[in-house]
# Entry
Amino acid sequence: MAFSILLTIVPTGIHFLYQRAQRKAISQNHSFAIAEIIQLEYRGGKGRHYYKTRAAYQVNGISFTCVGKAFKTLRPDQQDSLIGLKLPVIYEQTKPSNGELIYSEAQFNRFNLEFPDSLSWTRLYFLE
# Structure
């Protein structure tokens, strides 16, 4: 039993540390781009249900993707209305593939940025 708990905790901890390192790298040398939402994919399991939001952005003519999380309770018309919308991305200047879609106040706070009023509508669609 202890071994199975260890098998669950270790990968989660490694993933957390990896994400933290990625965010730190972005914070130290960042730039911004605009991403367009191109896909919503329902994700569920272990009590966590949401729509994985995939968005595409370009830096120097090269395309990259990043993801976000939208509420599982979105109606089909709300899901359709998200496709094609544009949201900001913060990315590491020296490694543009290391980018994060920033759509919530919590995400802006992670990078010590002020959440703009123009994105207040995202509170109805996206998870923190």
